[in-house]
C-alpha cells in the first residue's frame, strides 16, 4: 500500500492541472514555478476544489474517486492544511485559533498546545488577535493550528516562507520529528531546494 | 411664498378636508369647476394633521374639519378668518354588522350590546382622540352600556379603519358614521343611535386667515348653498341647518 | 415623571418590541444567509417579498396582515386551530406587525455582513474538522456579528416606532396593543396633546438611545482585540 | 391599465423618491463614514439623531418637520429667504419627508460596508501617492459599493412606501404631494376603493421590484470578476 | 550626504523598536528574527506608523523629524512599498492595480507597464482580479505596482518570498538593474542571506 496514490486533473480558468503521484515515502515535496498549480492541487486533496476526474488516496484511505463516486467532505478527510495565505480566524485569539480543530483530532495527538506554542515561539502571543501579528508570527500560528488538529496527514504550502533562519531550522526539526516518530504523510510545497532535500523522500515537479 | 396655491399650477383654492368627506367634496369640486371656476385643490388627511399644517403657516385657503375641537383651537389662535366659520354638514352615528348577518339591535337605553358581541370586539374609532370614537363613547355612555363594552373595544386609527375591521370580519359589530356604513357593501346598518344620545356631529368649515386665493370664499359659499348641500346630501350627510337649530 | 398609564404603554412597547425582534431574528438571519449565499430561481421573488413591508404603506401591510392572520384569514385560522394563537386585538398581533415591519431592515443588515465574509475562512474551518453547521456557528456567525448587531438596533428602533401596521391589524387597545406610537398618535389627535406627545416621544428616543449605547459598547468590545496601532 | 390620475401618482412618486434618495445619498455616506471611522464626543448623539426618524412614529417626524421646515419654522424661513425653497404643499416637501425617513436605513447599510473595509488598503493607496481624498475616491468608495447599493434599494423602497411623515408635513395634494401611499390612503376612503388600492399597491411593489432587479444585477456585475472556482 | 539617515524609535504594544542607520550605500538590507520589528520600521519610513521620536531622511530629503516637527504624509514621501502582505486592491484588475500610482510618479520612470508586466511574467494576468491569483502571482504584482509608481526610494518587505528560483533570479536581476541604473535607494527586508549578499551594500540586523 503506497502512502500517496494520487492521480487527478484539476480545472483552473483557461488551464488544467494534472498530478500523478504514487509514493511510498511519507514526505513528498511538490515543486514548480509560481502559478503552475501547486496550491490548486493541495486544495483538491483537502476537498476544497473538486477534481474533474481521478482518484485521491492517502495512507490507503480513499478520499476521492470519481469512478466510484467517492468524495469525502473536507471535514472527513482529516488533513492538517497550512494554507499559503494562513487564513487565521480574525475573530479568535491566537490560542482559540490554535485549538480550533482540537475537538476533531483524528490521528494521534502530535503535540500539546503548550509544547506547540513553545516549539514555534508563539507562547507570548496566545491572547492576541491575528490582525496584530507580524508576517512570520502569522505563519507559525498557521502551522501550529494544523499540527494541533491531530491530522491523518499534512498539507504544507510553503510553511516556512517569511521566517528567519533560526525559526526555519527549529520548525524543520519539528517537522522532521513528526515525520520520524509518527510517519505522518506530508505533502510539502516549497521553493527551497535545501528544505526539499532535507525533508522529502521524493519530490515531484508540477 | 412658493406654496401650491400661488405657483400658478393649481388655479383653485387649497382646501384641507377631513378624509371622511372625500367623495362628497370631490363631487362638489367637480360641480363647482363645471360652473367655470378653477377647480379647488383638495387635500384629505386627519383633522389634527391639517390643523397643525395651518398653524405652521402652510398656504391653505379653507379647512373642513371632522371635529369642532380643532376648529375651536384654530379660531382661538387667530388662524381662521373672522366670521367665516360655519357648519357645513352633519352626520348620524350607526351600529354596523357584516352584511351577511341578520341581527337587528336598536341602540336604545340599556340595549344588550355586550351580549350581541358574542365574545368578539366592538370596532370603533379611537374613543379618546378620534371624533367618531368620541361620539361613540358619548352615545354608549348615555345609553348606559359603556361600562359593559369598554373592555371589549377594538379602537381603530380612524372611522374607516373601524369600518374595515367589521367588513373583514375581525370584529362582529362596529360604530361608524351613517355615511361610512352606506359606502361599504360588506356591512349593513344594524341600528341607528338616537340623535340625542351624543353631541351633534358637525363638520365645521372656515377660511384660513392668510388665504389670498381669489375664489376660496366663493367655494365655501357654494358648499353652504342649496346646490352644494344637495351634493352633500347625496352622500348621506345631514343638512347644515339641522345643526344650527341645536 | 410618567403617569401609570404612560408606564403601562412603555412596558407594553418594550415587551412587544423585544418579543418581536427576538422571534424574528433567526428568520431574518436565515433569509439573509440564503439571499447572500444561494443562487436559485425565485430568489428575486423572495427578496421582493422580504422588502414588501418596506415598500407598502404600513396601513396596507396591516391590512394584508388582517386578511391573512386575522380570525377569518387562512393563516390566522390555521394558527388558532393548531396552537390557539390569536393575533387580532392581542399584544401578539402588535408583535407580529412590529416583526414584519422590522424584517426587511434586519435581513439587509445581516446580508451585507455575510456577503463581506471571506468564504476561505469557512473552508479553513472545514479542513480543521468542522462540519458545515459547526463552521457556520464558529466562523460565519461570529464574523456576521456586526450585521446582527446593526439588525438588532435597526429592528428594535423600527419596532419601537411602528404605528400604521399595528393600529390597522391589532387596533389601539390600552394595555394590550397601545404601544408608544399609538399612545403618541392618540395624544396627537387632541388639541393641546403636544406635551404628552413630547413626553412619550422622549421615552421612545431614550429607549432606542439605550439600545444604541448597548450596541456600540458591544461593537467596541468585539473590535477591541483587533485594534491596530497604525496612524492610518 | 392605470387611469391618467393614477399615472400622475406613479410619476410623482418616482420623482419624489428619486430626488429624495439622490439628494440624501451624499449626506448618508458622509454620516456613515464619520460614524464608522471617527471617535468623538457626541458621536452617540449624532447616531441617535440619525435614528430618530426610525424610532418616532412617522406622524411625529412629519410634525417635527412642519415645526422646523414649515413656512413659520426657523429652517423653513431661512431656506425660503435664502433660496426661495418652500416645502409645504409642495413636492419638495414630500421629497424631504421621504429623504428624512430613508436616512437612517441608508446610513446603517453604508456604515456596515465601510466598517468591513480593510484600512490597510487605504494605507497602500496613500503610499502610492494618493491623498486622503483620492484614496477615498479610488479605494474606500468602490469597496463600500455593496453598502451603497443596499442603501439605495432600502432608501428607495422606504421612500416609495413613506406615508405618515409626508401627509403630516406636505399634505395630500393631488399632483403635488399625493404619492402612491397617499393615493392608497385616499382610495381607502372611497367606497369600493379596494380595487384601486390593490392596483396602486401592485405598482408600488413593481417599482421596488424593478429597483431590486437593477441592484442585484449591478451587484453581480461587480462581484463577477471576483468569483472563485472553489467548491467551498 | 548619506543615502539613508534614519534614527527612530517605534512603539509596538509592549515593546519599542529602535533603528539607527547611516548608510551611503543605495541598497541596505534589514534582517532580524520574525516579530522583531522589521515591518514596523518600514511602516514608519513609509509614514504609516508615527515614530515616538527621531528622524528619517532618505537621499537628503527629510521625511520625519520629531525635533523640527516635520512629518510628511505617506503620499508625499514618494516611496514604493512592497508590503509583506501585498495589499492588492481587490476591486481593481491586475492592470489597474499596477497603474494605480502611475499618475503620482515622482522619481524617474523605472519601467513601463508593458516592460514591467513582461519582466515579472504577469502579462497574461492583466485582466484578472487579485482574488483569483496564486500566491507568487500576487507577490509579483505587488512588486510591479511599487516599481510603476515612479518612486524616490523602495521599501521591499520580503519581496521574493514564495517565488520559485527562476522567478526569484529574474526579479533579482530587475532589482539589480534598477539599483545600478537609477541608484534608487532601497531598504530590503529578507531572510535569505544569499539575496542580502548579492543585493545589499550593507545589512543591518534589528
Ligand atoms: N498591527 C499591529 N498591532 C499591534 N502589534 C503589532 C502589529 N503588527 C505587528 N505587531 C507586533 O509588533 C512586533 C513587530 O512586528 P513586525 O511586523 O514589525 O515584525 P517583523 O520583524 O516584520 O516580523 P516578520 O519577519 O515576522 O514579518 C511583533 O511583536 C508583532 O506582534
Ligand atoms: N481562486 C482562483 N480562481 C481562478 N483561478 C485561480 C484561483 N487561484 C489560482 N488561480 C489560477 O490557477 C493557477 C494555479 O494557481 P495556484 O495557486 O495553484 O498556483 P501555485 O502553483 O500555488 O502558485 P504559487 O507558487 O505562486 O503559489 C494560476 O494560474 C492562478 O492564476
Ligand atoms: O377624522 Mo374621522 O373621519 O372623524 O375618523
Ligand atoms: Mg500557491
Ligand atoms: Mg514583517
Automatic annotation (TrEMBL), chains A, E:
GO terms of molecular function: ATP binding; ATP hydrolysis activity
Superkingdom of origin: Bacteria
Keyword annotations: ATP-binding, Nucleotide-binding
PROSITE patterns tied to this protein: ABC_TRANSPORTER_2
Keyword field contains Oxidoreductase: no
Coiled coil: none
Domain ABC transporter: 1-206
Annotated SMART domains: AAA (SM00382)
TM regions (residue ranges): none
Pfam families xref list: ABC_tran
Family annotation (InterPro entries): AAA+_ATPase, ABC_transporter-like_ATP-bd, Molybdenum_import_ModC, P-loop_NTPase
Name of the protein in question: Molybdate-transporting ATPase
From TrEMBL, chains C, D:
Pfam families assigned to the protein according to its UniProt record, in alphabetical order: BPD_transp_1
Protein function: Part of the binding-protein-dependent transport system for molybdenum; probably responsible for the translocation of the substrate across the membrane.
PANTHER family assigned to the protein according to its UniProt record, in alphabetical order: MOLYBDENUM TRANSPORT SYSTEM PERMEASE PROTEIN MODB
Gene, per the UniProt record: modB
Keyword vocabulary terms for this entry: Cell inner membrane, Cell membrane, Membrane, Molybdenum, Transmembrane, Transmembrane helix, Transport
Protein family (similarity comment): Belongs to the binding-protein-dependent transport system permease family. CysTW subfamily.
An MF annotation (GO) of this entry: molybdate ion transmembrane transporter activity
Membrane-topology descriptor: Multi-pass membrane protein
Superkingdom assignment: Bacteria
Membrane-traversing stretches: 12-36, 48-69, 89-110, 139-157, 200-219
ABC transmembrane type-1 domain residues: 10-213
GO CC terms: plasma membrane
Name of the protein this chain belongs to: Molybdenum transport system permease
Main location per the UniProt record: membrane
Subcellular location: Cell inner membrane; Cell membrane
Presence of the UniProt keyword Membrane in the record: yes
Keyword Transmembrane helix in annotation: yes
Amino acid at each position: 500500500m503506497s502512502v500517496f496514490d494520487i492521480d487527478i486533473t484539476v480545472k483552473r480558468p483557461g488551464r488544467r492541472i494534472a498530478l500523478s503521484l504514487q509514493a511510498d515515502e511519507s514526505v513528498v515535496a511538490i515543486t514548480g514555478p509560481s502559478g503552475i498549480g501547486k496550491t490548486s492541487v493541495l486544495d483538491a486533496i483537502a476537498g476544497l476544489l473538486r477534481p474533474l476526474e481521478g482518484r485521491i488516496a492517502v495512507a490507503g484511505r480513499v478520499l476521492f474517486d470519481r469512478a466510484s463516486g467517492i468524495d469525502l467532505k473536507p471535514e472527513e478527510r482529516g488533513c492538517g492544511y497550512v494554507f499559503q495565505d494562513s487564513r487565521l480566524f480574525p475573530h479568535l485569539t491566537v490560542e482559540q485559533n490554535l485549538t480550533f480543530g482540537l475537538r476533531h483530532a483524528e490521528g494521534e495527538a502530535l503535540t500539546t498546545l503548550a509544547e506547540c506554542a513553545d516549539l514555534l515561539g508563539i507562547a507570548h502571543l496566545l491572547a492576541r488577535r491575528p490582525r496584530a501579528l507580524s508576517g512570520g508570527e502569522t505563519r507559525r500560528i498557521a502551522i501550529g493550528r494544523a499540527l494541533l488538529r491531530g491530522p491523518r496527514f499534512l498539507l504544507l504550502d510553503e510553511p516556512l516562507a517569511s521566517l528567519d533562519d533560526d525559526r526555519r531550522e527549529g520548525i524543520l526539526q519539528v517537522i522532521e520529528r513528526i515525520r520520524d516518530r509518527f510517519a505522518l504523510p506530508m505533502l510539502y510545497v516549497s521553493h527551497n531546494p535545501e528544505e526539499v532535500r532535507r525533508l522529502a523522500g521524493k519530490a515531484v515537479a508540477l | 411664498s412658493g406654496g401650491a396655491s400661488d405657483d400658478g399650477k393649481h388655479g383653485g383654492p387649497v382646501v384641507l378636508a377631513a378624509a371622511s368627506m372625500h367623495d362628497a367634496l370631490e363631487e362638489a369640486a367637480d360641480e363647482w369647476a363645471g360652473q367655470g371656476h378653477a377647480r379647488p385643490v383638495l387635500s384629505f388627511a386627519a383633522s389634527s394633521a391639517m390643523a397643525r399644517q395651518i398653524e405652521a403657516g402652510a398656504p391653505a385657503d379653507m379647512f373642513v374639519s371632522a371635529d369642532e375641537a380643532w376648529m375651536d383651537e384654530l379660531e382661538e389662535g387667530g388662524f381662521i378668518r373672522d366670521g367665516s366659520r360655519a357648519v357645513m354638514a352633519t352626520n348620524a352615528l350607526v351600529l354596523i354588522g357584516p352584511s351577511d348577518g341578520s341581527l337587528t339591535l336598536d341602540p336604545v337605553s340599556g340595549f344588550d350590546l355586550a351580549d350581541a358581541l358574542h365574545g368578539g370586539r366592538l370596532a370603533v374609532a379611537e374613543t379618546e382622540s378620534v371624533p367618531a370614537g368620541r361620539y361613540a363613547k358619548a352615545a354608549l355612555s348615555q345609553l348606559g352600556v359603556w361600562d359593559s363594552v369598554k373592555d371589549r373595544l377594538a379602537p381603530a386609527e380612524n372611522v374607516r379603519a373601524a369600518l374595515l375591521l367589521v367588513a373583514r370580519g375581525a370584529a362582529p359589530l362596529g360604530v361608524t358614521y351613517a355615511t361610512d356604513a352606506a359606502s361599504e357593501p360588506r356591512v349593513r346598518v344594524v341600528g341607528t343611535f338616537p340623535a340625542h344620545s351624543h353631541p351633534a356631529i358637525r363638520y365645521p368649515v372656515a377660511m384660513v386667515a392668510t388665504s389670498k386665493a381669489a375664489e376660496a370664499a366663493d367655494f365655501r359659499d357654494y358648499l353652504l348653498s342649496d346646490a352644494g348641500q344637495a351634493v352633500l346630501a347625496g352622500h348621506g350627510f345631514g343638512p347644515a341647518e339641522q345643526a344650527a337649530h341645536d | 415623571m410618567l403617569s401609570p398609564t404612560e408606564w403601562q404603554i412603555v412596558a407594553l412597547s418594550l415587551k412587544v418590541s423585544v418579543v418581536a425582534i427576538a422571534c424574528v431574528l433567526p428568520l431574518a438571519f436565515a433569509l439573509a444567509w440564503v439571499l447572500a449565499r444561494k443562487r436559485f430561481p425565485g430568489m428575486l421573488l423572495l427578496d421582493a417579498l422580504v422588502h414588501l413591508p418596506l415598500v407598502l404603506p404600513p396601513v396596507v401591510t396591516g391590512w394584508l396582515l388582517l386578511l391573512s392572520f386575522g380570525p377569518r384569514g387562512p393563516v390566522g385560522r390555521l394558527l388558532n386551530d393548531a396552537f390557539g394563537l390569536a393575533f387580532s386585538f392581542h399584544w401578539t398581533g402588535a408583535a407580529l406587525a412590529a416583526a414584519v415591519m422590522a424584517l426587511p431592515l434586519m435581513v439587509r443588515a445581516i446580508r451585507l455582513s455575510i456577503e463581506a465574509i471571506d468564504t476561505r475562512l469557512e473552508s479553513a474551518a472545514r479542513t480543521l474538522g468542522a462540519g458545515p453547521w459547526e463552521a457556520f456557528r464558529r466562523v460565519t456567525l461570529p464574523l456576521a456579528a456586526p450585521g446582527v448587531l446593526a439588525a438588532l438596533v435597526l429592528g428594535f428602533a423600527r419596532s419601537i416606532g411602528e404605528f400604521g401596521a399595528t393600529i390597522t391589524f391589532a387596533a389601539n387597545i390600552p394595555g394590550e396593543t397601545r404601544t408608544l406610537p399609538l399612545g403618541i398618535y392618540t395624544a396627537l389627535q387632541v388639541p393641546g396633546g403636544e406635551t404628552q406627545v413630547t413626553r412619550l416621544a422622549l421615552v421612545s428616543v431614550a429607549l432606542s438611545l439605550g439600545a444604541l449605547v448597548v450596541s456600540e459598547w458591544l461593537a467596541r468590545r468585539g473590535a477591541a482585540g483587533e485594534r491596530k496601532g497604525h496612524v492610518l
